[in-house]
Design brief:
By secondary structure, the chain is α/β, with parallel strands linked by helices. It contains 6 helices and 17 strands. Helix 5 crosses helix 6.
């Protein structure tokens, strides 16, 4: 198995681009796949710099319907016309941060290889997708500013469009989430319902991004409680992107070697 961070907010390889976004490239025994595609064509340029042939990718999973995870889909589709691109059907709804549109480019929905699903999906014995995350403990406070359009009305985003990818390989399970908008603890609760255990590894943003000194006391309490609960698990977490450096450092103080930073161009496994 091979896992490489193709796009992330910070650089880990001099010849790779960093941008506000996330894309993870994975090779399993049966698949070559992407979780998310970043914000721009950086996913294509970084793959070229790293010697990764994106034309051989067979599956793209979109974790949720935001531009910084979906923006590379159209550039990717220029070099790969056959990979199935899987997203929750609600990811196609308009999404906003205040008045700013942050949803996907609707031209993505015109691609012939788009697969809109509703709920969980088992692709094979290696790949499983799940959504249906309803818990709200340690819910990311940044979600309060985010909304979507349902039935013609702007409402608070409930993140039913968020899905997580589970990869089973060599007796280990990897859980991949783009931003964990539903809260990583709630995602892990849903995972445990499905698998009656916790994953061996998790790759995710934690949606806690703010500049140094800008976190409220309530936000700090959520970060600390989340970190304390995660530190009790026999799970290694890889994080970056929407976690933000100040929050990552707070979490690292508690989680220590159970938390590892992501950077564009770096190989995880």
């Amino acid at each position: 198995m091979k896992i490489i961070t193709l796009v992330e907010n910070t650089c880990g390889a001099e010849n790779c681009i960093a941008e506000h976004g996330l894309s993870i490239y994975i090779e399993t025994e049966k698949h070559k796949l992407l979780l998310d595609t970043g914000q721009t064509d950086a996913v294509v340029k970084n793959a070229e710099a790293l010697g990764i042939d994106l034309s051989t990718v067979d599956t793209v999973v979109l974790s949720h319907g935001h531009y910084d995870h979906s923006g590379g889909i159209l550039p990717f589709s220029q070099i790969n016309h056959t990979a199935q691109i899987i997203m929750q059907k609600s990811a196609a709804e308009p999404h906003y941060n205040g008045e700013r549109y942050i949803g996907i480019d609707t031209d993505i929905l015109k691609l012939p290889n788009i697969q809109l699903i509703d709920g969980d999906m088992e692709l094979d014995d290696e790949l499983f997708l799940f959504s249906g995350i309803t818990g709200r403990r340690c819910y990311p406070q940044g979600n309060k500013k985010l909304s979507c359009i349902k039935n013609g009305e702007k409402v608070c985003d409930d993140f039913c469009h968020e899905q997580c990818l589970v990869i089973t390989q060599n007796g280990k399970r990897w859980l991949l989430s783009g931003c964990a908008h539903n809260g990583i603890l709630n995602i892990l609760d849903r995972y445990k319902e499905l698998f009656d255990s916790y994953p061996d590894y998790v790759i995710t943003g934690f949606h806690m991004m703010k500049r140094e000194g800008e976190h409220t006391e309530e936000e700090k309490a959520v970060i600390i409680q989340t970190s304390q609960e995660l530190s009790q698990l026999d799970t290694v977490f890889y994080s970056g992107h929407c976690t933000g450096i100040p929050a990552f450092e707070m979490m690292k103080d508690i989680m220590r070697d159970k938390l590892i930073a992501l950077h564009s161009g770096e190989e995880i496994l």
